[in-house]
Amino acid sequence: MNLDRVELHTHLEGSVTPGRLILLSEKHGQPQLPAACLSSDGKTFAFEGFGGFLDLYKTATTVMRDPSDFHAMALDLGQQLADDRVGYAEVSVSYGVLLLRGLDPLPVQSALHEAAAEVHENLGVKMRWLPDAVRQMDKKWAWRAWEKAGTAGRGLGVVGFGLGGDEAAGPARKFASLFAEVKAEGLGVSIHAGELAAMGPRARASVREAIEECGADRIGHGLAAATDPLLLATLAARNVFVELCPGSNLLTGGVKTYADFPLQAFLEAGVPCALNTDDRTMFDLTLDRQYEQAHDLLGLTKSAAAAMQEAAAAAAFDKVV
Ligand SMILES: [Zn+2]
């Protein structure tokens, strides 16, 4: 099997299959829940805009409750990755949401680690984990999430710590001391920033803050940086890798059409970057299709695509092979 791709930005919860969501909803006594999340044929997820997506995420995660739920979701994702030629993936899992629901992230992490071992043995796909905090929640939740992630550590497949959620409602700077600790522990820092074009200049400031105040090794999305040559130059000079997610940005309103995605601005500025799905099933995306569309609509050459994969392997928080 050809597993030559690396993916650094994909969320476990956003990769739950519609079938798994139906099973989990029944298991946890919420059989009506899938109707609120899925299209009428039950095959894809339904939402509108970034706000609608956050609502969908909130609803779907209410039936992800037991370590066994996460184990099953990780096996499902392993299969999706194998089908998509991904041999190495760093997968985000929201410890912030787990804590908010009163769940201990450590047994969940053990289940994920076990599932990753099964996926590696059966499919040859290496999965590593990036727990994250939710930026709009109170700081204490982020610290609890990090304490759990730090405790789990590389022994349970945790290779970094991230920050996700609603960028407009939570500046990264308030987590600066937390990320200093993450780095001191030898783990990677990946922060969602510059995702929402609607934030205007604040979106560019958000990217800058993530780099300068939180020491981000990688930026999730970074879309807003494309209109700021100085910021692009900073990303390139500091070798901060940008996890581009064009299909996701299209669906949540960051760009109007796929062809509007400013891929060439990143490439011309020499910013290390590669394509990602972000939320595979919720957005109904594959990495294969992302690269195909970037080739067809954004002028991504074969050699530039290969260079992206090399850059992604270099920016991984664990050894890719
Ligand atoms: Zn994301």
Helix content: 40-55%
CATH class: Alpha Beta
> How can the largest sheet be summarized?
8 strands, parallel
Taking the alpha carbons of the first and last residues, their distance comes to 15 Å
Named CATH topology: TIM Barrel
In N-to-C order, the SSE pattern is EHHHHEHHEHEHEHEHEHHEHH
The bound ligands are: zinc ion
Q: Globular, elongated, flat, extended or rod-shaped: what is the shape?
A: globular
Number of domains: 1
Total strands: the figure is 8
Which strand order does the major sheet show? 1-2-3-4-5-6-7-8
Model regions low in confidence, pLDDT < 50 over at least 5 residues: none
**What does the average pLDDT come to?**
96
Radius of gyration: 18 Å
What would you give as the CATH superfamily? Metal-dependent hydrolases
Helical stretch tally: 14
In CATH, the architecture is: Alpha-Beta Barrel
How would you portray this structure in words?
The structure is a single chain. By secondary structure, the protein is an alpha/beta fold. It has a single domain (5-315), classed as Alpha-Beta Barrel (TIM Barrel). It has helices at 18-27, 33-37, 49-60, 67-83, 95-100, 105-123, 139-152, 176-184, 201-212, 229-237, 246-251, 263-268, 287-298, 302-315, and strands at 5-11, 86-94, 126-134, 160-164, 188-193, 218-221, 241-244, 273-275. An 8-stranded parallel sheet has the order 1-2-3-4-5-6-7-8. Helix 4 (67-83) packs parallel to helix 6 and helix 6 (105-123) crosses helix 7. The longest helix has 19 residues, at 105-123. The protein is globular. Zinc ion binds at residues 9, 11, 164, 192, 220, 278.
